[in-house]
Amino acid sequence: MRQRGTLYTYTVVHSGTEAFKDRTPYVVALVEEDRQIRLARVEGYTEGRDIGVGTEVEFMAEDPGGQPIFRFI
User: What's the rounded Cα separation, in Å, for the pair 8 and 56?
Assistant: First the structure.
């Protein structure tokens, strides 16, 4: 079973760097899991999707730099 967490706070990025320009808009969030808060990218956002503090996410993988990537459930 994958590790689950909730959005503690987040922002929707509409103008990304060159590496992320094809992924905008995307979500960068502080995700709370097991009483720890981690900075992470959250996959699966589409414009107009209803998200907020407390929205559930699940761990997918780590990026090449070791940063966690979550996805919306």
Answer: 10
Q: What is the pLDDT of residues 32-43, one digit of tens each?
A: 998 999 999 999
Q: What Cα–Cα distance (Å) separates residue 12 from each residue in 1, 24, 50? A: 27, 9, 12
Residue 3 contacts residue 33 (beta carbons within 8 Å):
yes
Structure tokens at 7: 């959005």
Q: What would you report as the CA-atom Rg of the chain, rounded to the nearest whole angstrom?
A: 12
Question: CA 14, CA 34: separation in Å to the nearest integer?
Answer: 30
Q: Say if pTM beats, i.e. exceeds, 0.90.
A: no
